[in-house]
Amino acid sequence: MQFDVLVVGGGIIGVTHAAYLAERGLKTCLLERRGLASGTSAHNFSWVNASTKTTNEAYHHLNARGVAMYHDLAKQFGAERIGLNPAGAIELVRTSSPTTYDNAQQTAKRLNDLGYTARWLEVDDLRHLEPNIDFADDHAGLLTPDDKFLNAPHFAGFMAARLKNLGGEIFENCAALELLADDNGKVQGLRTDQGNLRAPRVVLATGPDTPQTLAALTGFDGFAKFPINKVPGLLVTTPPVAKNLVRHLVYTDLGGEFHFFPDFNGGLRIASDDVDGRIIEDQTPGHLHHLASGLLTRMQEFIPGFAGADCLNDCTLSIGIRAYPEDGMSIAGAVPGADGLFLIATHSGVTLAPVLGNLMAQLVDTGQVPDELAPFGLHRLAGFGG
Ligand SMILES: Cc1cc2nc3c(=O)[nH]c(=O)nc-3n(C[C@H](O)[C@H](O)[C@H](O)COP(=O)(O)OP(=O)(O)OC[C@H]3O[C@@H](n4cnc5c(N)ncnc54)[C@H](O)[C@@H]3O)c2cc1C
Hints:
Layout: E1 5-8, H1 12-23, E2 28-31, E3 47-48, H2 57-77, H3 79-82, E4 84-85, E5 89-94, H4 98-114, E6 119-121, H5 123-129, E7 139-144, E8 148-150, H6 152-165, E9 169-171, E10 176-181, E11 187-192, E12 195-198, E13 201-204, H7 210-218, E14 228-237, E15 249-252, E16 258-262, E17 268-271, H8 273-278, H9 285-302, E18 316-325, E19 331-334, E20 341-345, H10 349-366
Parallel strand pairs: 1-2, 1-13, 2-9, 5-15, 13-20
Antiparallel strand pairs: 3-8, 4-8, 5-7, 6-7, 10-11, 11-12, 14-17, 14-18, 15-16, 16-17, 19-20
Helix pairs in contact: 1-6, 1-10, 2-10
Bound molecules: flavin-adenine dinucleotide.
């Protein structure tokens, strides 16, 4: 079968990118070895934000553009239809805890300097915005009202439907096995476990498996060292709680990093970077239950009306695997040495799916690297010109 572009990987990145390719009139085929959004896109925290990306200016602006594109998509199609909750995020600090308080104040200044709205909240504001949380008198908060949270598998389903409406094809349970290229290294398509697919351009959006997929498809073992680390994270999803028990995404570094938001199943989704550090070595069920129990107890300290560890047996525990590029920033662009091969591998892919999907569609279609994408190309990596 002949297409203009083949996209490998049906996570949020691949599906969204494929829909933007089809929007540009390119005959696009997406292939996914399992089901759509069954990898990292199904197991993550789904916080759409630029508020935690303040170090590198270009990367901040890329994420802010992702946030703004969700705003536009919600306006165009409706927030519920795309699976978006635009409620905003609150960082919780204590004025009596100088380190976290000073850090949050610096973050507020930095975000406002970057043009990303961040507003300081006193404890009375917090009590008004989140009436069920038990705030202490010295609590204060930083509100980033443009942050959002997403039902990522739902959004991927929305984009898949959009791709099909625009004439694209989707093959599930179809694994890409080998890149087909002519003697000059020019891409001709893919050999898959369902037969050959022909196209002059192939885009890999294979998440944490990118190094192994690149090596397998090209036959070059050196790609197994592609600079992406796999970093696991634990997600605890509680059974449904009272409506509006929590309204925003809330995060804090007080007593260890901890974050939660009202999930789309009516429960709470809870995670913690500190806990993630403790599951790298041990992911046995007993250890995960112990860590989840600690998170639920902590949650109850914030919200006395919440069941705490008593609901542990009714919670869903899952582990997601981050594709974490070594310098922390997205890798998106043409793969040097293989004419017609492109790649998108990133953390924060929920936030970045619309912006990377769209910018990469411009690159694949026109051959020109859009300015916003230029800092994230493969040329910065060792062995690719970096
Ligand atoms: C714990 C955790 C918390 C996170 N929190 C956030 C957050 O708050 N905000 C945010 O923006 N991001 C967050 N992320 C990151 C975000 O989830 C990911 O960046 C995003 O889901 C990546 O999507 P993807 O499409 O690149 O990868 P995936 O969803 O993994 O999709 C890749 C797909 O490629 C398929 N594939 C692989 N090889 C082949 C092949 N040979 N042939 C066919 N198909 C193939 C796989 O089956 C898979 O479905 C978090 C991640 C984790 C783990």
